Amino acid sequence: MKTFLDDQFLLNSDTAVHLYNHAIKGLPIFDFHCHLNPQEVWENKSYNSITEIWLGGDHYKWRTMRMHGIGERFITGDASDWEKFAAWAETVPHLIGNPLYHWTHLELKMYFGIDKVLSPETAREIFDECNQKLQQPEYRSRAFIEKSNVKFIGTTDDPISTLEFHQLLKNDETFQTIIAPTFRPDGALFIERPGYREWTEKLEQVSGVKTDSLDGYLAALKQRVDFFHENGGRASDHDIPKIEYVETSKEEIAALYAKRLSGEELTNDEVAAYKWFLLTELGKMYAEKQWVMQLHMGALRSTNTKMKNLLGPDTGFDSVGESNFAEGIARFLDGLDQQDALPRTILFNLNQKDNVVLAGMMANFYEEGVPGKVQLGSGWWFLDHIDGMERQMKDFANVGLLSHFIGMLTDSRSFLSYARHDYFRRILCNLLGEWVEKGQAPNDMVFMEQMVRNIGYYNAEKYFLQR
Which of 191, 220, 240, 364 sees the fewest Cβ atoms within 10 Å? Predict the structure, then answer.
């Protein structure tokens, strides 16, 4: 019987252990998509308690606490830090089988040197030990990044952001990690949302370009793409609940844009037409800058209206959606490709049924000298567990070239989430090790070690920074 979370955790063969220890252990991290706050990095934020850094804003944990019957006061309410931590500790033993159980204990071990299993019995001891350590300089935000050996962080940023803290960090010679902004134009795309007109007004203010016409609006967005690029931006990111092909014209979209600015509501068909047009125009801008376009598809957002009204979005009430992406994505990528304007693109799906659909899209669009121009993104959100990651890599390999896979990301707001990269790397080594042990891959450790290193770090670095 193996010991929980020992050095060979998730490594179930000698080959897996070899690959992990000789090829990927200690490799730098290239975290190309996350939701860290660059201001907290610039200010080198310190934390009052483990509750603040662990439970503040982590809707993964909030969801499981609610499922365990914990009251909202102990999740997002006014309970003390100790009361919230104790409620989390009460939940943790029931998480066996959930990746949060592994992440929780990996983070305690990797960052605080704590090997104990979190439970109601150990909660006070662990709470006090973590809090004592958090008062020390080596437990501030920058130290967590440095301890994790993170070389690149892609944050998620509204086009109207001033990128003040990205600029400050770029000029800070004491901090070596690249903190790059990622262009996330939800405000521009979701024309049906109540705050759309206010967002366009803010866009006009920050860009200095009038947005009272479609041409002006596109010019203002282009100005922001240029601004992001000047400040280190090399990627965009999009929330795509679904994508529908709609044959339309610029004149028709100009009329829809004017209609929406006048305060009128659009029909579902009009909204779909607008999104198709704008996504295409944005794709052209990204291609011109040689950016990476990330499409996160399939989330069913804010399903609990009562709790959305109480707490706002992104508080743990989203689900896996079920949409037919095949034709829409194929037509979208093809439309850009026909105009020689298809950027490097990552397709993330939230429903496992879409793995092969999107993986099969990869080879349809290519560019000489760019391995894996269209990528199937790693297991994301509801899929970033052992089964989800293994299935994503198997589906990638079955219809594509897994050796060109750009690997893992945190998609997190926590500075402790870099433990997830180690989690992924162990799963990767175990999968490849299993193939070697079964004779499904050759026992060529030179090639296999390089493949592991590439997936773990170098493919992403080359893909995003064109090295």
Answer: 364
Domain with CATH 1.10.2020.10 in the chain: 46-139
Q: Are strands 344-349 and 374-376 parallel, antiparallel or unpaired?
A: parallel
Q: What is the pLDDT of residues 166-191, one digit of tens each?
A: 999 999 999 999 999 999 999 999 99
Provide CB contacts within 8 A for 21, sequence distance 6+.
Answer: none
Q: How confident is the model at residue 467 (pLDDT cuts 50, 70, 90)?
A: low
Q: Identify the CATH number of the domain defined by range 14-43+151-465.
A: 3.20.20.140
Please report the pLDDT score of residue 236 as a whole number: 98
**Maximal CA-CA distance, the chain:** 68
pLDDT band, residue 466 (cuts 50/70/90): confident
**299, 317 Cβ separation under 8 angstroms:** no
Burial class (CB in 10 A: 0-12, 13-18, 19+), 173: exposed
Is CATH 1.10.3720.10 the right assignment for the domain spanning 46-139?
Answer: no
Q: HEC states along the chain?
A: CCCCCCCCCCCCCHHHHHHHHHHHCCCCEEECCCCCCHHHHHCCCCCCCHHHHHHCCCHHHHHHHHHCCCCHHHCCCCCCHHHHHHHHHHHHHHHCCCHHHHHHHHHHHHHHCCCCCCCCCCHHHHHHHHHHHHCCHHHCHHHHHHHCCEEEEECCECCCCCCHHHHHHHCCCCCCCEEECEECCHHHHCCCCCCHHHHHHHHHHHHCCCCCCHHHHHHHHHHHHHHHHHCCCCEEEEEECCCCCCCCCHHHHHHHHHHHHCCCCCCHHHHHHHHHHHHHHHHHHHHHHCCEEEEEECEECCCCHHHHHHHCCCCCCCEECCCCCHHHHHHHHHHHHHCCCCCEEEEEECCHHHHHHHHCCHHHCCCCCCCCCEEECCCCHHHCCHHHHHHHHHHHHHHCCHHHCCCCCCCCCCCCCCHHHHHHHHHHHHHHHHHHHCCCCCCCHHHHHHHHHHHHHHHHHHHHHCC
pLDDT in tens, 391-410: 999 999 999 999 999 999 99
The pTM of this model reads 0.96
Query: In the chain, which segments carry CATH 3.20.20.140?
Result: 14-43+151-465
Q: Are the beta carbons of 338 and 348 closer than 8 angstroms?
A: no
Task: Report yes or no: 218 and 281 within 8 Å, Cβ to Cβ.
Answer: yes
